[in-house]
Amino acid sequence: MTNPQNSARALIDGKLQPCPPSPNCVCSEYPDTTHSIEPLAFSGDADEAWTRLISILNGQPRTTIPAQTADYIEARFRTRILRFEDVVEFRLDRAAKLIQVRSASKVGYSDFGLNRRRIETLRLLFREE
Fold first, then answer.
1. Given 52, 82, 90, 126, which is the most exposed site by the fewest CB atoms within 10 A?
2. Domains in the chain: how many in total?
3. 8 Å CB contact between 26 and 119
4. b vs e for 30-63, b when ≥16 Cβ sit within 10 Å of the residue's Cβ?
5. What SS3 class is residue 3?
6. Judging by DSSP bridges, how do beta strands 25-27 and 40-41 pair with one another?
7. Residue numbers of the domain that contains 68
8. Along the 129 residues of the chain, how does pLDDT read in single tens digits?
9. Domain assignment present for 124
């Protein structure tokens, strides 16, 4: 596991950061906002679900994981054509059997729905594993 200190900066009161006003972000921690997206749900063992997610992320093209702890992951996705970097974060909520998600563009205003589509694609892969 790498850089556990990063998780302290990424979490606010134990939650992922809220999205900025721009439309290039989605987050499951704040369900009553326009940026809302469902978290990843799992049944069974939390550690197995976490390991499954890490495996899926490692299989994604142009993706790195610069920070990872037992309950937090920061992944960086580079877009295929323009090579923009998006930050995707995950927080494991063992008690609720949920993985909270946040996906945001680092630059620009609109992402044309890319961050939402990315999380939905990861959700499908997570269900299939």
1. 82
2. 1
3. yes
4. beeeebebebbebeeebeebbebbeebbeebeee
5. coil
6. unpaired
7. 1-14+63-129
8. 444 444 445 789 999 999 998 989 999 999 888 999 999 999 999 999 999 999 999 999 999 999 999 999 999 999 777 678 899 999 999 999 999 999 998 866 666 778 999 999 999 999 986
9. yes
